[in-house]
Task: inverse folding
């Protein structure tokens, strides 16, 4: 598995071909649902016009896109960090939920702190909750050579059950009627950012996270080590880069970002814990991180693109009766298209 | 007590088979050097196809055929992208997971998802008097045909992989593709065939789930079995019979947790539902460091002979 990671992401002329990648994605995502829309006997062009008119043409639609792009960006950043180190963290959904559980469970301690401090502690708890799961995965990988692909996916199912128990047991609302928790204390909610929409201060958290991780990866020695370990773990070990420590930190940050996203989503949107609310963000984040070529700055626009699919899938459902899982088909086809594009362009480049 | 244990053992066998088909296919694929982490997606897609095929043809075999075709189709995509284009096998496999989940959900909601339907399913093979042997009968002679097919497949592979020419060439493609290539073996062709076989078997696993285990289709019903199948390949040390045993361990854990839920109503049921996954994690920790996979697993291969002829 180690060696496979090296050849995964040939970064030849990344900036130049980034626009081509984006173009390929847009073309694929236009063509794939069109097949289903035609099969359902509707006019694809009219359906797309409705999709674009809503997501980009109306303020409500665009605010929804921004709202969806918050968790997608945060989890996407996390995936990008792990993949950079050659670790296939596909447990974003479980880490997202774990972050939200831990942050929520700790919330009584933070509720009475002064306003920004309590919220910051709450978000930090989300990061730590997700990150702890990441460190566990890193430990299993380094100590027992347990493949992270299996361990992260298995942990997804375990955390899902943990959440299910939590909201029917210790974290359930005091009335004990519905399978959800009590509301988060008012002082820990992320305030609304744009009046009349669901866009909340999580957008600021996401932007800060993009900038911080971009600087960490581009400008710090850790960022350099991360990429070196991912490109060639053996060379990195010989160069004395402390491969193991890099793997642990990469998984801590990666899973931590997903956990942060979970706590942000609760504080900004749901305001309490409920059954499986990760909405496949962990899965979408993999496609986003790959499309961004694992560059944090590109994660944000790609997350907005995927947020358009998320919101647009709702439009297609209403307009043309196309079921929501079309989003997953798009994610799969986009990744395959990206792989083909990369393979063909790297062959042309004489690699 | 005996009856209870017999019931548990029979259920354990039944619950292991969908994983076993996928894991045996993956064993062949990995022995040829290609990892397919997309089993989950193939199983999801073919579970839907099995349901649709059985409903529309009125016969479970119609479902099985369609499921195998779907498995072959998704595996062919993985084969082309990861073998012939040399793209990262793990990323390509992940794409299959998403694609399969999407095709399964969209396909189901656009076809048989509208109203509740009866899915024609398999019934147990009639072994006559054998069924009445105490203990042995209910445990071993109470299953549908596909259960015996899976067990036979494991033993067939166990003998074929080390002993036949085809098995040797397949393993050479996974262990030392350069040497195999020098000996005139078309490595990528063998790998592609192995991936197709893996896809067909994962398809059969998805079909088994719908037509012989649950007798219904629910979205997302594969629930990580595709990934547990990959883990079972590691636990079984890439040996088909070992892989089958590992799968049966999981089936037993699954059968046990269902019973424990009713025996201990005081303990939250979620802890029993997570049991097979915890078992997978613990088994991964125990077995992962003890076994080594095929030497060239995960590495794309480009023939030196072909490259020379281009120059």
Result:
């Amino acid at each position: 598995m180690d060696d496979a990671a090296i050849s995964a992401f040939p970064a030849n002329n990344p900036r130049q071909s980034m626009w081509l990648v984006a173009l390929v994605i847009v073309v694929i995502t236009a063509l794939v649902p069109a097949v289903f829309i035609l099969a359902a006997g509707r006019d694809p062009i009219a359906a797309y016009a409705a999709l674009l008119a809503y997501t980009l043409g109306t303020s409500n639609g665009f605010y929804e896109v921004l709202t969806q792009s918050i968790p997608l960006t945060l989890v996407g950043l996390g995936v990008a960090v792990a993949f950079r180190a050659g670790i296939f963290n596909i447990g974003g959904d479980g880490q997202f939920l774990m972050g939200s559980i831990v942050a929520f469970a700790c919330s009584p301690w933070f509720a009475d702190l002064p306003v920004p401090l309590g919220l910051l502690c709450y978000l930090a708890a989300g990061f730590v909750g997700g990150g702890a799961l990441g460190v566990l995965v890193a430990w299993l990988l380094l100590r027992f050579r347990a493949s992270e692909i299996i361990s992260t996916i298995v942990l997804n199912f375990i955390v899902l059950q943990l959440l299910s128990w939590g909201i029917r047991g210790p974290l359930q609302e005091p009335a004990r009627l519905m399978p959800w928790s009590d509301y988060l204390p008012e002082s820990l909610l992320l305030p609304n950012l744009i009046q009349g929409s669901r866009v909340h201060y999580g957008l600021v958290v996401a932007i800060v996270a993009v900038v911080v991780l971009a600087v960490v990866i581009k400008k710090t020695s850790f960022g350099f080590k991360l990429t070196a370990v991912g490109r060639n773990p053996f060379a990195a070990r010989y160069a004395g880069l402390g491969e193991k420590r890099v793997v642990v930190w990469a998984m801590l940050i990666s899973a931590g970002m997903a956990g942060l996203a979970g706590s942000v989503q609760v504080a900004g949107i749901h305001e309490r814990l409920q059954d499986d609310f990760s909405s496949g963000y962990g899965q979408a984040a993999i496609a986003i991180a790959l499309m961004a070529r694992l560059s944090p700055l590109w994660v944000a626009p790609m997350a907005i693109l995927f947020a358009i699919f998320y919101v647009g899938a709702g439009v297609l459902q209403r307009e043309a009766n196309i079921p929501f899982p079309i989003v997953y088909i798009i994610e799969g086809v986009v990744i395959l298209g990206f792989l083909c594009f990369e393979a063909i362009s790297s062959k042309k480049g004489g690699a | 007590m005996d009856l209870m244990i017999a019931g548990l053992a029979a259920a354990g066998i039944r619950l292991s088979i969908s994983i076993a088909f996928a894991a045996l296919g993956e064993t062949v694929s990995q022995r040829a050097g290609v990892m397919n982490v997309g089993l989950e997606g193939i199983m999801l897609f073919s579970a839907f196809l099995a349901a649709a095929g059985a409903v529309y043809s009125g016969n479970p075999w119609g479902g099985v055929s369609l499921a195998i075709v779907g498995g072959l189709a998704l595996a062919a995509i993985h084969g082309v992208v990861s073998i012939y284009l040399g793209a990262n096998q793990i990323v390509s496999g992940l794409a299959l997971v998403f694609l399969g989940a999407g095709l399964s959900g969209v396909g189901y909601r656009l076809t048989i998802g509208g109203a509740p339907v009866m899915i024609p399913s398999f019934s147990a093979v009639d072994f006559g008097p054998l069924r009445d042997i105490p203990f042995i009968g209910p445990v071993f002679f109470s299953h549908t045909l596909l259960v015996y097919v899976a067990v036979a497949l494991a033993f067939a592979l166990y003998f074929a992989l080390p002993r036949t020419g085809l098995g040797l060439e397949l393993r050479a493609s996974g262990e030392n593709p350069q040497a195999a290539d020098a000996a005139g073996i078309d490595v990528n062709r063998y790998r592609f065939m192995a991936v197709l076989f893996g896809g067909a078997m994962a398809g059969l696993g998805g079909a088994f789930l719908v037509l012989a285990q649950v007798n219904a289709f629910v979205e997302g019903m594969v629930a990580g079995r595709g990934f547990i199948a990959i883990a079972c390949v590691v636990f079984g040390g890439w040996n088909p019979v070992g892989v089958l045993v590992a799968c049966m361990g999981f089936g037993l854990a699954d059968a046990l947790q269902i019973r424990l839920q009713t025996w201990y109503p005081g303990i939250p049921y979620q802890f029993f539902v997570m049991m097979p996954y915890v078992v997978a994690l613990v088994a991964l920790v125990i077995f992962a460091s003890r076994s080594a996979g095929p030497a060239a697993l995960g590495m794309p291969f480009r023939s030196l002979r072909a490259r020379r002829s281009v120059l």
User: Anything to note?
Assistant: The mean pLDDT of chain B is 92. Residues 2-124+134-304 of chain B form a domain with the ABC transporter involved in vitamin B12 uptake, BtuC fold (CATH 1.10.3470).
